Amino acid sequence: MCGIVGYTGTRDAAGVVLDGLVHLAYRGYDSAGMAVADDDGNLFLRKAAGKLDNLLQLVGSEPVRGSRGIGHTRWATHGPPSAANAHPHADGAGEIVVVHNGIVENYAELKARLAANGHAFLSETDSEVIPHLIQELLADGAPFEEAVRLAAGRIHGAHAIACMHAKEPGLIVAARRGNAGGVAVGAGTGEAFIASDLPALIPHTSRVLFMEPEELVIVRPEGFELRTMEGRRASRSVHYVDVPRSILERGAYKHFTLKEIHEQPDAAQRALHERIAFESDEVALSELPLSKAEMAALNRVLFIGMGTSLHAGQVGARYVETLARTPASFEIAAEFSHRDPALDERTLVIGITQSGETADTLHALREARAQGARTACITNAPGSEATRAAECALLVHAGAEVGVASTKTMVSSMVTAYLIACALGQGRGTLSGERAAKRVDDIARLPALLGASLEMADASVEAIAERCFKSRSFLFIGRGLLEPIAREGALKMKETSYIHADGLSAAEMKHGPIALIGGDTPVVALALRNSLYPKMLNAVAQVRARGGPVIAVATEGSKEVTELADDVIWTPETPSLLQPVVATVPVQLLAYRTADLLGNDIDQPRNLAKSVTVE
Ligand code: AGP
Prior knowledge:
alpha/beta; Glutamine Phosphoribosylpyrophosphate, subunit 1, domain 1; Rossmann fold; seven-stranded antiparallel beta sheet; 27 strands; globular
């Protein structure tokens, strides 16, 4: 939550910082701000409440000049979204500026002490204590980088900060403690960059250093120096990140979310890339550090995650149970780590987190690992905290997902979970011969099936959304493997359109929720052809009998559905294990089109942020 950027070099820092903020806006958009310094010791601060456009306009009307700058895009925790609460925050003399991601848990105590020493505060944030703390340490004689290190050490709570002093030309100091989101440092030629996340760096450099917790980095145009929080020098190799710039461009699409929905066939292909050996019909997951004996010894696989990633995990658990014949379940990561779960080395805990930063999921992964369970994460973020929290990381390679609502990363996560299930099945001897060949053939066809699903949904969803976008509530129902997709459809509808929606097993309807049925509550029924299809038809008939409008998502050619439902969104004939992936497309598009008709800011829905780094 919150995005920080920094630049030092010879270019117009305001342009680089603002461009970085544009690419990180998905991390929070309650307010934004930046500070730019010139070589004469002048510091210019610009801050605006609301979305980034407000800051862009402000800087347009009140331009700033300088070759060094830091910026911030905020998801409010302490203090409402306002210009005063926007970062950067400055010390009393206006010479030290700080952008902060995280929470200063002991800010009240620090603030009271600083105020007693004569420091005046201008905001209601916890973050504002940081520049004052640095100023106090400077006054005691510490050099700037040392003052930042000591100040970071006095803050309780995970955080990432970037700091500048007006009178320290070329210098930016960043610190990272605990996990409040990452900090990546990009190396250029005669210039350097800092960002919470790769999208802000990709346009400028492919040489990136990911800071680890408890580290400080001293950044100058000519290079950077890494230190531990104890002040010792540290070194680590720089990563080469190879991400095409087009991934950051919206192209002809109205929203990134729509572009990312349409990228799903490619995203699935990338998740599969080099992980299937067709000659042997085997899935090869070199990242999974389990020997055949260890796989055979597993007695439980548990998927954890939050929101959309949890839904992907719910599907993943079904894959493992079916393909690897191992008891598998799923759980909300935030609940898992607070209930003292019984774990041992025969349990494999798989955390799904596209951002690799979700505090709840990281906490749960660490907890599981500490208790001796085997751990893995499925993530779209190389170098992220999740890749360190778990024993091994399976990258989904979906490419940057800019829309705050997860779309293609969910599809890629389900594909990766399928591959894990196949690998476990092979290792445990439950998936071999023709069955293995069939599963491998099926998944290889998935990108094409997703393409067909997109085409079919595109043909009908717009007209359906036009008929129901004024509804006050939606229900999404499914059975078996499609139940998690009902939940996902409801989540997408809620977060993009702000219409109340609930997703549940169709079997639950008659135990209560059917009381909600009336003319104003469309029911989206995931009625694809599979073993539970007849039961779904019964559920649809029961809704229709009570006057509820039904939008069915069905397998092409299913006549029975046409007779029962008001509208049908077709999907291609798909092997039942892959139906949840294929059925994700129409529910995403229905939510998207509904939200678009309502005129919502779909890429940045209100109150949300792409990575949730606070518990
Ligand atoms: C998805 O559309 C949501 N915005 C949200 O539920 C998200 O899936 C959840 O916060 C988990 O994020 P993660 O995958 O980055 O861990």
